[in-house]
Design goal:
Layout (H helix, E strand, L loop, with lengths): L1 H17 L4 H6 L1 H8 L4 H10 L8 H5 L7 H40 L1
Helix pairs in contact: 1-6, 3-6, 4-6
Length: 112
Amino acid sequence: MGYKTVERMVEEIRTELSQGVELEDIKDRSGEFVDSWLPVYNNRIVEEWVAMPNDYTDRGSAELGTGQEISIINLMTLDLYLYYSDLFAEAVQEVEEELELVSVEAIKEGAN
Protein backbone atom coordinates (compact mmCIF):
# COMPACT_ATOMS: atom_id res chain seq x y z
CA MET A 1 0.00 0.00 0.00
CA GLY A 2 2.71 2.49 0.97
CA TYR A 3 4.99 2.38 -2.07
CA LYS A 4 2.15 2.51 -4.59
CA THR A 5 0.52 5.36 -2.69
CA VAL A 6 3.76 7.34 -2.61
CA GLU A 7 4.16 6.84 -6.36
CA ARG A 8 0.62 8.09 -6.99
CA MET A 9 1.28 11.07 -4.72
CA VAL A 10 4.51 11.82 -6.62
CA GLU A 11 2.51 11.81 -9.87
CA GLU A 12 -0.03 14.19 -8.35
CA ILE A 13 2.76 16.53 -7.23
CA ARG A 14 4.35 16.39 -10.69
CA THR A 15 1.01 17.29 -12.23
CA GLU A 16 0.68 20.28 -9.91
CA LEU A 17 4.23 21.38 -10.79
CA SER A 18 3.52 21.05 -14.51
CA GLN A 19 0.57 23.40 -14.01
CA GLY A 20 2.89 26.05 -12.58
CA VAL A 21 2.29 25.45 -8.88
CA GLU A 22 5.44 25.94 -6.79
CA LEU A 23 6.67 23.10 -4.61
CA GLU A 24 6.53 25.36 -1.54
CA ASP A 25 2.82 25.98 -2.22
CA ILE A 26 2.26 22.24 -2.44
CA LYS A 27 4.03 21.77 0.90
CA ASP A 28 1.93 24.55 2.45
CA ARG A 29 -1.21 22.78 1.27
CA SER A 30 -0.08 19.33 2.39
CA GLY A 31 -3.09 18.99 4.69
CA GLU A 32 -5.42 19.39 1.71
CA PHE A 33 -3.53 16.75 -0.25
CA VAL A 34 -3.59 14.34 2.68
CA ASP A 35 -7.31 14.94 3.21
CA SER A 36 -7.95 14.09 -0.43
CA TRP A 37 -6.25 10.71 0.05
CA LEU A 38 -8.22 9.71 3.13
CA PRO A 39 -10.99 7.21 2.51
CA VAL A 40 -14.52 8.38 3.21
CA TYR A 41 -16.50 5.18 3.55
CA ASN A 42 -16.22 3.12 6.72
CA ASN A 43 -15.36 -0.12 4.94
CA ARG A 44 -12.45 1.56 3.10
CA ILE A 45 -11.27 3.22 6.33
CA VAL A 46 -11.15 -0.18 8.02
CA GLU A 47 -9.43 -1.84 5.03
CA GLU A 48 -6.74 0.82 4.77
CA TRP A 49 -6.25 1.01 8.54
CA VAL A 50 -5.70 -2.75 8.67
CA ALA A 51 -3.21 -2.51 5.77
CA MET A 52 -1.15 0.37 7.20
CA PRO A 53 1.99 -0.35 9.27
CA ASN A 54 1.36 -1.06 12.95
CA ASP A 55 3.60 1.88 13.89
CA TYR A 56 0.64 4.18 13.27
CA THR A 57 -1.93 2.27 15.29
CA ASP A 58 -3.45 4.45 18.03
CA ARG A 59 -1.12 7.39 17.32
CA GLY A 60 -3.67 9.68 15.70
CA SER A 61 -5.66 10.59 18.78
CA ALA A 62 -2.49 10.92 20.87
CA GLU A 63 -0.79 13.29 18.42
CA LEU A 64 -3.76 15.10 16.89
CA GLY A 65 -6.39 14.91 19.62
CA THR A 66 -9.89 13.82 18.81
CA GLY A 67 -11.64 17.15 18.19
CA GLN A 68 -14.81 15.34 17.29
CA GLU A 69 -17.12 12.57 18.38
CA ILE A 70 -15.04 9.62 19.50
CA SER A 71 -15.71 6.44 17.56
CA ILE A 72 -13.49 3.67 16.32
CA ILE A 73 -13.84 4.96 12.75
CA ASN A 74 -12.76 8.47 13.77
CA LEU A 75 -9.78 7.07 15.66
CA MET A 76 -8.80 4.96 12.63
CA THR A 77 -9.12 8.02 10.40
CA LEU A 78 -6.76 9.97 12.66
CA ASP A 79 -4.21 7.15 12.44
CA LEU A 80 -4.60 7.10 8.66
CA TYR A 81 -4.13 10.89 8.53
CA LEU A 82 -0.73 10.55 10.22
CA TYR A 83 0.20 7.67 7.93
CA TYR A 84 -0.76 9.55 4.78
CA SER A 85 0.99 12.68 6.07
CA ASP A 86 4.22 10.72 6.32
CA LEU A 87 3.69 9.20 2.86
CA PHE A 88 3.06 12.67 1.43
CA ALA A 89 6.24 13.99 3.06
CA GLU A 90 8.12 11.07 1.48
CA ALA A 91 6.59 11.90 -1.93
CA VAL A 92 7.58 15.57 -1.59
CA GLN A 93 11.12 14.55 -0.66
CA GLU A 94 11.31 12.28 -3.71
CA VAL A 95 10.19 15.11 -5.99
CA GLU A 96 12.67 17.52 -4.36
CA GLU A 97 15.47 15.04 -5.06
CA GLU A 98 14.33 14.73 -8.69
CA LEU A 99 14.30 18.51 -9.06
CA GLU A 100 17.79 18.75 -7.57
CA LEU A 101 19.06 16.17 -10.07
CA VAL A 102 17.50 18.07 -12.94
CA SER A 103 19.11 21.30 -11.71
CA VAL A 104 22.52 19.67 -11.41
CA GLU A 105 22.21 18.16 -14.89
CA ALA A 106 21.16 21.54 -16.32
CA ILE A 107 24.18 23.19 -14.72
CA LYS A 108 26.49 20.50 -16.13
CA GLU A 109 25.00 20.93 -19.61
CA GLY A 110 25.37 24.68 -19.37
CA ALA A 111 29.04 24.29 -18.46
CA ASN A 112 29.73 22.22 -21.58
